[in-house]
Amino acid sequence: MSDIQKDEAFVLEKRDYSDTSIISNIFTKENGKYTVIVKGGRNPKSKFGLIIDPLNQIEIVVYKKELRNMQLLSGASLIASYKNIKEDIDKIKFCSGILELVRNLIPENEANPKLYKGIARIFELFESSDEKPEILFGRFFMFFITVLGYEIGLDKCAECGKEELSGEQTGFNYDRGLFCSDCSKNNLISFNFSTELFAYLKCLKEGNKINISNDKTYFSAITFMENFLRNHISDFKGIKTLQVFK
Known about the structure:
Layout (H helix, E strand, L loop, with lengths): L1 E16 L3 E8 L3 E7 L18 E9 L4 E11 L2 H4 L2 H17 L7 H16 L4 H15 L23 E3 L3 E3 L1 H4 L6 E2 L2 H12 L8 H18 L7 H5 L2
Parallel strand pairs: 3-5
Antiparallel strand pairs: 1-2, 1-4, 2-3, 4-5, 6-7, 6-8
């Protein structure tokens, strides 16, 4: 059975296929992630070859057939190309990291409108906000972990239940969660928080304004979240894009 479908999508990646075509991994609003083939896409005169480019948000028309690994793209138009992002190497780096997370950790053919909306929102912020790219990425990463079905609990000690923790000598076990300074002494700790890092992570989780100006803290938070995902998803080896751009 085949069907012609119209949808919106973010282009996650593209690569050459045969002498004339390209294939692209896309994340769509209505049908989730899948792969399309753009026949003749390598031709400089192709209507769609330049539109199908990573970071672009596009409208698509796809000739979709069940049980086919690659769907045939028959139409595409540009919604957003994010010019400001593409002119800033740091923004490119972190937005490419977002695409990598979606490409590698989201299952095929499963609609996820919450994630689609989240990508659209964070790219809008990268395009127009003055907030530092590493902070914006941290905000998305925390959101993404929640979308995957995991929870980084920062509200109370996993053992004694103590609340309103400040982060001073607070420890985190990737399997059990957060421990206060007293309970940390008697438990295996995977990651030790400084007061500043703990406060920053709470801001990311709660969507609050960031009043911390410390690049080391921003990147420590990313490292913590990478390690958290590694512990829960055995196939996840970290965000390679961020390593390539270092």
